[in-house]
Fold this sequence. Notes:
The chain has two helices and no strands. By secondary structure, the chain is mainly α. It comes from Candolleomyces eurysporus.
Amino acid sequence: MGVAYAVENLAHSRKEATRRQRIEAEQRRRDELRDGYAKLKDVLPVSNQKSSKVSLLERATNHIMALEQANKDLQARITALENEMQRLRNVNEKISLSANNTPSPGHAADGPRPISPPPDGPSGHSLTSVKGQQPPSAHSSPSASENGF
Length: 149
């Protein structure tokens, strides 16, 4: 009878050991889930929403989608700026090439005319050309705006 009791006791201890292992594994799983939710909550922007696990997962999903959209927008902007840089490089190259191939203004017979200053004579831009107005004289009274009014 002692052998049967020992076998029964051994079977019971194996069952108890298996039960304890399962309980410990479940506890580790719950701890890992709790730690995972805490880490997720820490990396999300602060919110006044309730902090249930479901709402936390929804906030995380929305935040990830917003980040993906922002990333997509930034990638499009980078592409547009790279295209603009290339266009400007091409323009700069054309300007450099035309500057190197153009003779100096004094030696160009048929080339573009250099920009020259306006002639010294009277032009159509003086104040005397405005009907009914004379240019201000040196001893005329200052305007109200000059006196701070």
